[in-house]
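So, could you explain the following?
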Amino acid sequence: MIANAERVGPAMPSKRLVVGHAAWWIAKPRARPPAPRTQMAAIRDEESAARKLSFADAVKDLLQNLSFHCYGKLVEHGRGIQERFFWLICHITALTMLIAFVWGTYKDATDELVTTLYDPLYAVSKVPLPAVTVCSQNRLSRRAVWRYAQELSSKDPRHRNATYFYTELRAFSLYYGIDENIDDERVLRLQSLLDHLDTRPHDLFFNPKDRLRILTPKCSDILVSCRLGGRPFDCVQGFRETLSSFGFCCTFNYNGRYVNARSYYQHFFGSDMGLILTLRAAVDDRFSDKNDQDGFSIAINEIHNYPDPQSGGVTVRYVKTGRSTYLPVRPRILETLQEARRMRPAVRKCRFWDEMPHNFTRHYTFSKCISACRAHSIYSLCHCLPFQLPMHYVVGATGRLFCTLRHMQCLRHYTFKWKNVITSREYVPGLEHEMVDALYCPQCLPSCSEIRYNVRGAGALTLHNPFGHMTNVHSGNISSPGNNNYGHDSSELAAVRIYFAETHIQYFRQIIKNDWYEIFSTIGNICGIIAGFSLIGICELLFFVAKQLWHAYKAERKSDLFHTHTRSRARTRANGRAKATQQRQPMELLILP
């Protein structure tokens, strides 16, 4: 037995699991050690001690056991007031820097999108051709106006001749912003005649849109020959009559026929491989005697866009007759990734093409939005809509009144407002009145994805019989090459070459600058470096706050129950005393005879 005891050795003391001193593990901080009593009695003592712990002692215990760095030195025993004050200043400075850095990170994160160069050598053969709009500076055809004057003369009950109406119809130049110095009374008198003589049975007023469509020079009269990629094509089939801010014009590639990628030999690079147009401005068809009527306006923009230079997104160049004009186009592509759709437009500061589909023929662009905003303002202030603007830009305006000569005074009055558009208001010293008078369109944001067709390096050469090598293609009839075989005076003709100036372009993309996990990581690094914060420490702090709130709630609830029970006992005692008093009242003795 002794040998076995020696072999086993001395008896080992019994081990006990000791709980850590961190605030996260202490169920009841600062509780006294349990007495050697029963387990239920020990639990009741711990609960009683926890309830007696003051808030100041609880905060002190939290700071001593918190995982954050150096917060325990504020309440550590044995440190002097100077050292505690030093650590307090250090913590306040660290918290101030932390707030400043976190706020700067948040402000920087609000700029959600960043533009990067996706492809510096993107092949131009993959770039869609732009829409090209050709507008004659001679907005009214003299022959068409003369026929219209004869028509009005035949309907006039006073039988005035066509020359009278032809002279009065010069007021139609006001529709295009051309000031002819015509008396307002004559303009109003002409409008009254038109309302009486040129009104269809289903119209209540004169319709200037249909009439000006007839009076505008036709595309077949303007376009003499057309070539694309070195090959001729029918101008009438390739161009379409459309509306623009200049009025009725002729547009090439309006429906996006040349959007798809093309082969290398159809990349339209170089002045001989692009779009080559021969335009004619007939001298004998000019309605106005001004010298600026012998040219053309060329608008180059993205397809599905409304050609309005005042709304942006459109490049306009003016072409003179008797010259060969070169318009080198340098596209720039900007694309926003689809992941940005989950962000609000006000945050990403742009709109995708399918956002706000109403009023924009299901294809939003910044230029369309500005034009629609201007149309709303015109319709609200002058109660009419200019014939140049599409009707669907104003909801409920279909079938309403177009602006006639009677509205010209109102349109001239607000010209400054409609030519100055702002999308956001910022205080600029000295421009207070301009900001108030300008047209405010806060709903118009830039397009998230777009193609900009910039024209840089344009030039013009004198036209010296340049058409000998070209072929006249008009309405399907192809004539043989010759020396100016178009049958027109060279001074009436203008050659325009629209082509891509580069074989490769830059492709830009807008991506999300910081995703949520990147922002979380950045803020976590800042908090850890400056103040020593950690996720566990934050959980400890939240646990402490929740625990204190729970204890306060229980104390308040216990106090309410105590007061309720006290009032109930007082009420019961009062009722008992009242009943006892009633029972102790003397009884009346009734003596019967």
About this structure: The CA atoms of residues 287 and 557 lie 93 Å apart. The domain at 351-445 is CATH 1.10.287 (Helix Hairpins). The chain is about 35% helix and 20% strand.
